[in-house]
Design brief:
By secondary structure, the chain is an alpha/beta fold. It has an 8-stranded mixed sheet with strand order 1-4-3-2-5-6-8-7. It starts with 7 loop residues before the first strand and ends with a strand. The longest helix is centred in the N-terminal third of the chain and has 27 residues. The chain has 2 domains: about 90 residues, Rossmann fold, CATH 3.40.50; about 100 residues, Vaccinia Virus protein VP39 (Rossmann fold). Helices cover about 35% and strands about 25% of the residues.
């Protein structure tokens, strides 16, 4: 049997319980429309692609144009579950345990960078955005899909009220984070931005300034 298209560096796994329940939470959402958003997020990503917080690899089958995908996560238990999804694609996928705030890659290494439901979880998104800019090739594209604070005042107030509890049970997700503003204030230039009807979900692209 041929070797699967991945190489993986993986120390002892923390947070194994969260890795086991993550797919149980996300897969039903994929069946009700989120899979389409993943295709929009990953399908056009070209060249050498970096995906941060790749988790259990739910995005992997949606890559169509990439040459290579390098997926990082700081939770080895999540990456162990991502391995089987590398078998669902002909694209080479490298899985690496790493922190998005201190990426182990040279400057200008990637043609496209994908962040899906990760900037709302990483403790310091501003530092992460600077690191992503560092490893981005000139004119590289940042493709993002994120939970954000709703533009609707009533929903935003509910998000603010439940944010502390949600962060504890969801692996650190800050569902009321103003992620578009953080991207806009970084070295990235937003070119395209879509938001859901309720304003709690955004998707878009930005280029390295």
């Amino acid at each position: 049997m041929a070797q699967p298209p991945y190489r993986i560096a993986m120390p002892k796994a923390p947070h194994a319980l969260f890795a086991r329940i993550y797919d149980l939470f996300m897969v039903p959402q994929d069946r009700f429309g989120l899979a389409h958003q993943r295709t929009r997020l990953c399908g056009p990503a070209e060249g050498r692609v970096l995906e941060i917080a790749i988790g259990t690899g739910l995005n992997i089958p949606h890559y169509k144009s990439a040459d290579t995908v390098v997926g990082i996560d700081n939770n080895p238990a999540m990456l162990r579950r991502a391995i089987r999804r590398t078998w669902e694609t002909k694209i080479t996928v490298d899985l690496v345990v790493a922190d998005a705030r201190t990426l182990p890659f040279p400057d200008r290494s990637f043609d496209s960078i994908v962040v899906g439901f990760s900037l709302c979880t990483i403790p310091d998104p501003a530092t992460t955005l600077r690191e992503l800019h560092r490893v981005a090739a000139p004119h590289a594209e940042l493709r993002f899909l994120e939970h954000v604070r709703s533009a609707q005042p009533s929903m935003a107030r509910r998000q603010d009220r439940f944010a502390p509890m949600w962060e504890r049970v969801s692996g650190g997700c800050r569902a009321n984070q103003e992620t578009a503003r953080l991207i806009d204030e970084s070295s990235w230039l937003i070119e395209d931005l879509w938001s859901s009807d309720g304003g709690g979900l955004i998707q878009g692209t930005a280029v390295a300034g």
